[in-house]
Design brief:
Blueprint (H helix, E strand, L loop, with lengths): L3 E3 L7 E3 L6 E12 L2 E13 L4 E5 L6 H9 L6 E6 L2 E2 L7 E5 L10 H11 L4 H14 L15 H14 L4 E5 L7 H18 L2 E5 L3 H7 L2 E6 L4 E7 L11 H17 L10
Parallel strand pairs: 5-10, 5-11, 8-9, 9-10
Antiparallel strand pairs: 1-2, 3-4, 3-6, 6-7, 11-12
Helix pairs in contact: 2-3, 2-4, 3-4, 6-7
Bound molecules: adenosine-5'-diphosphate (ADP).
């Protein structure tokens, strides 16, 4: 089979076989020595994510979801095991893997356009090209009219669109999303679900998406990784073979979500049904 050439940025050419996973987590453990003693945030976690795949991760609070994302981003290193991205071991952050957070992490003193352009500026992209790319992404997330607005002038959904545009402007291979829509109202969240699915289809990015909302996970994911807490392990990986575009009210989706929720209730006896979203 042919070998595809990916990302010749910064002079670095990565040859990746089409069947090679974009992300490879191999028997990873991570412990923290906190005030309440030693916590095993992740124990022997292994996971492969295919190129272009959309993987959602659900699990009770404290099961290590954010830690897993941090390891994939390269913000933390595992105590044992290895994390690989695009054929190389992850040893630190890399613009090919962009994180998107719930709280936007935008700079309030910069305009929308400046926020989107900042990463490009730091990456040494020339001014005209920065402007061109930022304009394109702002149009793509329907924010072109707000290019000169300041972040505090935007709604939560608009801010999250800026975060997505800022990440995609850097043309990463992987988007790592940590509960990005958790703080949004249901209507805005529905809109962003549609937009994110369209962007993912068009760009072919690999996405790892953390959520508390089981229905959201089944709506968006090719697979849903169900985690257990204390220690954080993978309990089950659920393939979602439902046609796209999907809708929250699809009976097949609700059925699958019910199964995942039953897993989570096993984990946290008495967990509220509302976690199904
Ligand atoms: P989740 O995202 O699923 O809620 P986390 O990855 O944030 O879980 O945390 C997993 C476990 O590790 C929790 O018990 C948490 O308290 C602990 N933990 C995470 N980060 C730290 C840290 N920097 N110091 C001490 N304990 C931590």
């Amino acid at each position: 089979m042919a070998v595809v050439e990916r990302g010749s940025r910064r002079g670095q050419v990565v040859h990746l076989h089409p069947t090679e996973p974009a992300l490879h987590v191999d028997q990873v453990s991570r412990r923290f020595d906190g005030r309440r003693g030693l916590t095993t945030a992740l124990a022997d976690v292994s996971l492969d994510v295919r190129q272009g795949e959309f993987v959602c991760v659900v699990g009770p609070s404290g099961c290590g979801k954010s830690t897993l994302l941090d390891l994939l981003a390269g913000h933390q290193r595992p105590d044992t095991g290895h994390v690989w991205a695009h054929g190389a071991e992850v040893v630190g952050p890399d613009p090919r893997r962009m994180m998107i957070f719930q709280d936007h992490a935008l700079f309030p003193w910069l305009s929308v356009r400046q926020n989107v352009e900042l990463g490009l500026r730091l990456a040494g992209v020339a001014r005209a090209e920065r402007r061109r790319r930022a304009t394109g992404w702002l149009e793509r997330v329907h924010l072109e009219r707000f290019a000169d607005a300041l972040v505090h002038e935007l709604s939560g959904g608009m801010r999250q669109r800026v975060s997505i545009a800022r990440a995609l402007a850097l043309d990463p291979d992987v988007l790592l999303m940590d509960e990005p829509f958790a703080a949004l109202d249901a209507q805005t969240r529905d809109l962003l679900h549609g937009e994110l699915q369209a962007l993912w289809r068009e760009t072919g990015k690999t996405v790892v998406f953390i959520t508390h909302n089981v229905r959201e996970a089944v709506l968006l994911g090719d697979r849903v990784v169900v985690m257990t807490a204390h220690p954080g392990t993978i309990r089950r990986i659920v393939p979602v073979d439902l046609p796209r575009p999907r809708h929250m009210e699809d009976p097949g989706l609700i059925d699958l979500a019910r199964g995942v929720l039953a897993d989570l209730r096993d984990e946290v006896p008495g967990a509220p049904a509302q976690a199904a979203g």
